[in-house]
Amino acid sequence: MALFGLYHFMIYRVNKLLPKAERIPHARVLDGGMRFSYGFDFSLVRRQHKRLYPGSVINSSLVGCIGLIVALAVILATFRIWEYTHGKLP
Predict the structure, then answer these.
(1) Selection from 11, 8, 3, 2 nearest residue 53 by Cα
(2) Which of 1, 13, 18, 49 is the most exposed, having the fewest neighbouring CB atoms within 10 Å of its CB?
(3) Taking 90 as the threshold, does the pLDDT of residue 74 lie above it?
């Protein structure tokens, strides 16, 4: 939940300084039929944020938190697979 809030805080800070036509949308929008258009690009948000706020640590902390969560998920999945293969799970 914190990563979600941090990401939207980055978008808010970037949008605050951009002209209305160049603002980055916060959420995906339904774009004709059943095709979803995401309407945002994380790398675009990061580039714009770095350009507008060069001394900010939000970019690196967001990427660090994402990496930590992915690493934790891999470790937990590996542990569960090990438990299953060694008969520790019912």
Answers:
(1) 11
(2) 1
(3) yes
